[in-house]
What we know:
Layout: E1 2-6, H1 15-24, E2 29-33, H2 36-40, H3 48-60, E3 64-68, H4 81-94, E4 101-104, E5 107-108, H5 112-129, E6 135-139, E7 147-148, H6 152-162, E8 167-172, H7 173-179, H8 184-191, E9 195-200, H9 220-227, E10 233-236, H10 241-274
Parallel strand pairs: 1-2, 1-10, 2-3, 3-4, 4-6, 6-8, 8-9, 9-10
Antiparallel strand pairs: 5-7
Amino acid sequence: MHYSISTYTLFHLSIDQAIERLIHDGWKSIEVMGEGKYHGRPLLYMEQMKLKEIASLVKKNNVSLGFHLPVTGFNPASVDESTETIWAKCLSIMEVIDVNYVLLHPGTNTSIQAGIESTALFIKKMLRDLPEMIKIVIENVPYKEGSIGTSIEELISIIDHVNDDRVGIMLDTGHCYMNAQEHFLKECEKAFPYLYGLHINDNHGQHDEHLQIGEGVIPFKQFFLRLGKRDIEYVLETNTIKRAEHSKLHIEKFLTKSTRCNLRVSIESDYKYER
């Protein structure tokens, strides 16, 4: 398991200030949010010298990065000039700043099937453009008319169309709960075989609140019991650093209990077999 924190925790700061603050606080893995007029969006227009300063700071402190691509104007589900332009700018950023993965929202299309196929085609282009070591992860999104990726089945369909091991799912617990409250756990389990990581945040099922675990009503205890320990990214995407730290403590408790439970089941099974 690998803990990471999103710069969304410092959304009120510029992206360079947020990265510097998180590194100063000791975080060794950071997901850079490329959205927000005064936060991540300026990355698209940042001067090379400033990008190099960020890259130098990251390298000096042995920090790994993920890049959450912009949302506004970036629409793989129905590719247009804006999408192509933003992707070209993101590529130029990644020529200076090393990242382990890029994360995308599929976008919107009036046809779900056309949106899935368009997203898959664009991801294939992204794979050709990127160095082989960089992964692409697709995030499930809150329900909105025309949005692609509101169900795990849609994300799996995109992955099947792409058919490349470099593509996986970033399961956002908050988005999933908003879309499938009564069937939350079953919906999450569909993503488990494809998981690259988790966006971990809580809510009350109505709004994308980005709360710490326990502040909302998502059944995280049952979730982590079913998930167990996996070698994935645990991205803490709350709206403050304090909430991220609080969530991390909860996750560690849940995973410890999950391990004990699985060990007990294994011991009991072995005992019955021996008898």
